[in-house]
Design brief:
Helix content is 41%, strand content 23%. It has 302 residues and is an alpha/beta fold. The strands form 2 sheets. Strands 3, 4, 5, 6, 7, 8, 9, 10, 11 and 12 form a 10-stranded mixed sheet that branches. Strands 1-2 form a two-stranded antiparallel ribbon.
């Protein structure tokens, strides 16, 4: 069992098949098949099972996957540590963040980082909170920004701020820009929210339902919409209300296409956490980025 075999195994799993993995790795499908066959022979167990549309992990494959990802991440750590020793700064730094956090509020920290580490390649991608954790755990990214804590023993999570949530409304709504005493005054309004059918959905997707449940309201008139941008467009068009991060509505409020309804008995916020891999290598550049994110006023003031 070697690192190339483990890399091939993980690639087949993530790509969902041998042909797709061959494209990702730039190899032929027979070469991929031989590598997996050799790994299965070494382990004396099948790692994949045929399924409609591709392959899925066998029981042995499910046992191997997290361990293979940890081995590959450790090898990447070693490579980055040597690169840091040679350059004095380190190799590329990858940041994954929940989409609503990858907003203009991060501009200051990322710009300052880029100015100090001009030779370090910084990449940014967006994902859900669960996906951010997975990317960090696998070593695909160096640092993650997500909502709420992750109890995984492979990760270190640190609270660095909060995102305040508020009720977004169209400017023409009767209560737009006004204050109401209780959320109960909005119980008969139509709402938009993320469908909470996937365990990997944003934890804050449940927030509006939890807020009404606390007030004794179990049924809302609501429509599931799986995109925050789509929710904003529908609210702008006057079709309903939505509970959103205040920062995510900044541009629309400045343009006058969205307004907030302040609710006296609503104190809703989502914790923002910085995530790194436990025991993972952080180059001087990555450590600097973490410090800038901790100090970012965007989070402290949210």
């Amino acid at each position: 069992m070697d690192s190339e075999g483990l890399k091939t195994f993980v690639a087949v799993h993530r790509a969902g098949g041998f042909s797709s993995a061959a494209e990702v790795l730039g190899r032929s499908q027979p070469a991929i098949s031989r590598r997996i066959a050799q790994l299965e022979d070494d382990l004396q167990a099948p790692l994949f099972e045929r399924a409609a549309g591709g392959v899925v992990l066998s029981q042995a494959g499910r046992v191997l996957l997290p361990r293979a990802e940890r081995v590959l991440a450790a090898l990447q750590d070693a490579s980055q540590a040597i690169a840091a020793l040679r350059s004095g700064q380190g190799g590329p730094v990858a940041l994954a963040a929940v989409g609503t956090l990858a907003s203009t509020g991060l501009t200051g920290a990322l710009k300052a980082f880029a100015e100090r580490f001009a030779k370090v390649e910084l990449s940014l991608q967006t994902a859900t909170s669960a996906e951010v954790s997975d990317l960090v755990r696998r070593g695909d990214v160096t640092v993650g920004l997500r909502y709420l804590m992750d109890a995984s023993p492979d990760l270190v999570c640190e609270r660095i701020g909060v995102e305040r949530l508020a009720v977004a409304a169209p400017p023409g709504h009767r209560l737009a820009g006004r204050r109401v005493a209780s959320l109960l005054e909005l119980k008969d309004e139509p709402w938009f929210a993320f469908a909470d059918v996937d365990r990997r959905a944003e934890p804050s997707a449940r927030n509006i339902f939890a807020q009404f449940l606390l007030r004794g309201v179990g049924d809302l008139r609501w429509t599931p919409v799986d995109s925050l941008t789509a929710q904003k467009r529908l609210v702008e068009a006057g079709f309903g209300l939505a509970l959103m991060p205040v920062s995510a509505t900044a541009e629309e409020r400045a343009a006058g296409s969205l307004a907030l309804i302040e609710v006296d008995d609503l104190d809703a916020a989502t914790i923002v956490t910085l995530v790194v891999r436990k025991g993972g290598y952080l180059s001087p550049a990555a450590l600097d980025l973490c410090e800038r994110l901790r100090a970012e006023p965007f989070f402290a003031a949210s």
